[in-house]
Amino acid sequence: MTLSSGISKVMSGADWLMLISLSLLWGGSFxxxxxxxRELPTITVVTVRVGLAAVVLLLVARIGATRSxxxxxxxxFLVMGILNNAIPFLLIVWAQxxxxxxxxxxxxxxxxxxxxxxxxxxxxxxRLTWGRVLGVMLGLAGVIVIVGPDMLHSLGADVAxxxxxxxxxxxxxxxxxxxxxxxxxxxxxxxxxxGQTAVASLLLVPAMFVIDRPxxxxxxxxxxxxxxxxxxVLSTALAYILYFRILASAGATNLLTVTFLIPISAxxxxxxxxxxxxxxxxLVGLACIGCGLVAIDGRAWRALxxxxxxxxx
Length: 313
Hints:
Layout lengths: L12 H24 L5 H20 L12 H22 L5 H8 L2 H12 L7 H18 L11 H21 L1 H4 L4 H24 L9 H29 L1 H4 L2 H16 L6 H18 L1 H13 L2
Helix pairs in contact: 1-10, 1-12, 2-3, 2-9, 2-10, 3-7, 3-9, 4-6, 4-7, 5-7, 6-12, 6-13, 9-10
């Protein structure tokens, strides 16, 4: 089945602003995960994250005031909750118990690679182009340069964890393409965010009680509780409102270039709050990512083509 819509391949200024904001919110998720998994098992971390986010979103949305709960597309929310929450969150959080966050970030940045292929196969207006392929490759190269080539030396060790990260990236790609349908259904971004997190919570809670038995775990520290609140409210609830707004206006491929911006967010936050100084490789990586985003956006290619046509080249 091929999806089609009025999605623009070129992102507006508002889209770019939301994308940068989303990168800051999701960039923090790796930090929050690192803290939480030191004291809590994987399923518990993911369940609390998704469940608390669903509660916050429901309080903000007040869905019943604008549209009957029964009229919402719950079967589509089920698919979205599995692809966009349950599967990738579990895989990434578990992987971070085995490998460093830097390597997890590199593997997570393969998401646009999968997305351009999935979008090409299942949509009519996000076809694969050489510009997009070049942009994705430049962006991925920039992420690797920023995180540091030394991180690649650990590839091959902890293969299962690395495959888990790649599996999460593939799941995100399918979720982004599938999620385009909610705009056509006239389901608002916040309603979609509530629906997917609510359904994912219902799937995860029984697994948490059966496998992790949270009542048997020691009381987590204040740092862990703070990390759970941060990842639920900021990196999930607020992030998914932005996610579905960008998806509706700019499409799956443009949206998931956010994974290239996450390392940049980490650098900016480190510089602003931790006094860290960017290195030369960070600046080179930023340049690669910038060129990649320009290529994916497509405006430069169209301007070049128009110039050639006008000059008769």
